[in-house]
Write a structure and sequence with these properties.
Elements: E1 5-11, H1 16-31, E2 36-42, H2 49-57, H3 62-74, H4 96-109, H5 111-126, H6 135-144, H7 149-157, H8 160-174, E3 182-185, E4 190-193, H9 198-213
Parallel strand pairs: 1-2
Antiparallel strand pairs: 1-3, 3-4
Helix pairs in contact: 2-3, 4-5, 4-7, 4-8
């Protein structure tokens, strides 16, 4: 059996569109099990939430305006519920702490567990309205999932998690990633950005696999 092809998947954990697309990514992974390997990588979109909201939503209601936008964007998608307190009352200061924890989890416990934990964090924010910018919240979620904390903290303390996160940022720049979510196929030759429907995702991956098999 050929080695699975790598699909680089760039998101920010606080991005509503990544939350909306989540179910499609899960289905893609299921349909092409053993044929693709989705490599979860993170972007610095909400690294400084206050500045982002001030710059982009100053004349549109600031946090409340953005919260309304997030809720309205998700309304057509039953698989992506949003708690009404998100951004109205619960306002994470940064996505960076969550991204750092996820890279540490990946280094300490493997990519699959880290991918599963990313979904846990997204649910904690979008469904349960938990402030996932706090390390104590993230540690509590780790404990809830029975993920051993000490190896995760070691990867943060020794700098390897931060180095891995910076690596994600560099790859995003290399591939000229425009935003979240973005799938990069065939070593950067093909990019799928934004709210891409499942049929398009499936067709592009299927075509890539077919081309590789014909070589």
């Amino acid at each position: 059996m050929n080695k699975p092809i790598t699909v680089d998947y760039f998101t920010d954990i606080l991005c509503i569109w990544a939350w909306i697309v989540q179910q499609r990514i899960e289905e893609l992974n299921k349909q092409f099990a053993g044929k693709i390997e989705i490599r979860h990588q993170y972007l610095d979109l909400f690294g400084d939430t206050a500045t982002r909201i001030q710059d982009q939503w100053k004349n549109k209601g600031l946090y409340d305006g953005f919260g309304d936008h997030v809720t309205q964007s998700a309304t057509p998608f039953e698989s992506a519920p949003v708690n009404p307190e998100v951004w109205h009352k619960v306002r994470p200061t940064t996505s960076a702490n969550a991204h750092l924890i996820l890279k540490a989890t990946e280094l300490a416990h493997g990519s699959q567990l880290a991918a599963n934990f990313a979904l846990v964090i997204r649910k904690a924010f979008f469904i349960d309205a938990q402030d996932i910018s706090h390390f104590d919240t993230l540690d509590r979620l780790l404990a809830q999932e029975e993920i051993e904390l000490a190896p995760v903290h070691d990867c943060i303390n020794n700098g390897t998690a931060l180095a891995a996160l910076i690596g994600d940022f560099h790859r995003a720049k290399q591939y000229e990633v425009k935003g979240s979510p973005t799938l990069v196929l065939d070593n950067g030759r093909q990019t799928l950005y934004g709210n891409v429907c499942y049929r398009v995702l499936h067709t592009n991956v299927e075509e890539l696999l077919r081309n590789l098999e014909s070589l």
